[in-house]
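Hey L., structure's done. Input below.
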Amino acid sequence: MKIINRLSAAVKALRGFEDYDDQKWLDYTGGGITKAGIRINEVNSLSISAIYSAINIIAGTIASIPKAIYRELKSGGKEKARDHPLYDRLHNKPNNSNLTSWQWIFTQLVHKYIWGNWYTQIDTKSYRDRELIPLLPDRTWFDKDKDRYVTRNKKDGREIYITKEEMLHIPHFSLDGISGKGVIHYARESLGISKALDIFAGSFFGSGIHPGGFVEVPGELKKEPRDELQKDFNKKYRGLGKLYSAIFLTGGAKWKKEEIDPEKAQALESRQFSVIEVSRWMNLPPHIMRELSRATYSNIEQQGIELVIYSFLPLTTQIEQAMNIVFFDNEERKDHYVKFELKGLLRGDIKARTEFYKAMLDRGVYNADQVLDLEDENPQPDGLGKIYHVPLNMINKELIVSPQPLTINENKSNSIAKRGLSPTAQKRSAALRRKITISYKGQFDEYGKKIVKKEVDAIRGAIEEMLSQKGIVEFNNWLKISFC
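Output:
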């Protein structure tokens, strides 16, 4: 009965295909035999070190990137929409199990690259109570005839139907925009060669093709005593595995040594090329997979930037757009969106970051608190870090032509006009003074408080000294000398 159920499930899983052919059936039932004579499927492909490394790098990096739901503000800018019901699901805990956001995204990216599809069911109990449940890609497909998704229960084979609005589906490489194909589907022949090289390397060191020596026995020696003698000899003197075993030759037989040099057979170069080949399939630069034969210190940073721009940016953009469609309704989508922050991956070394921050601070683009936030540090106390600084020889164009009334008294305006300044110059001078006042107001207030406190402490000390040791006349004289 189980065999019938499995065959029935296999046919149902193939419903998502346009047509039936042998290759698709082989893909589903375990992968076909490649020309290298190796069977490659989605599971055993992960035993290839280059594939495992590439998937681990991509999925681990994207899962580690800061991500959040943002809300656009009517006054401009944005803020994190912490009150949205899916904010915590995306940021921390996708569902009511112990699954973390990192593990959810990591697992789904493995599904996407290996099997070709990222399936996450959005289980909606209510608007405020929604869960993100990852589904197995080999048990989920899109039914084009009924315009819905189908997933097969692992325990009893029961089919569960899911609407498009309740499914986050991100295909990998798709020819119809609906059903995706993973890297393994297209790279099977290349991976077959890589797997064959792994098997060759294991066989090379395990087959003992380097004998340690030969023992020539004159005359004939029957098979049984010869085998026993050879076994006993190798048991005592043989090296690791089958290496350097002794071979017993009888009857005047001579050994002609025929070594196989793995370097001559280009095994080492082929294994190195397999890393580059997988890098090409996975859209990764070879150096990120520790293939540094052509990498130099001068270009490694630039290659890191290219990794973000050409590898991670297209991937995160695809994920963001898919999430925006299913996470928000038409009204929410007008001012809500998901964002994966890639800026942290583009940060250079400490010297490059210091130069960048200095330029942004000097031009008034960033304030100190924004720089501290980019470096994951706490803001300055009392709002001091929110002050923007600009050079005195620079001014905002909007302030120059600002229609707002100037905050200078009429006498000062007349004094400036008498010096022969044009109206534009007068506005510019007043705007510059206003800009300086706003920029340094916090510091002026702080210094003023310190001065007042110092004076108050001095007066209190004088009161205690004068009234306790001298008299009111001496105290009045001290006040006149100190403050008049």
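The two ends are 107 Å apart (CA to CA). Confidence is low (pLDDT under 50) at residues 14-22, 400-406.

-- N.
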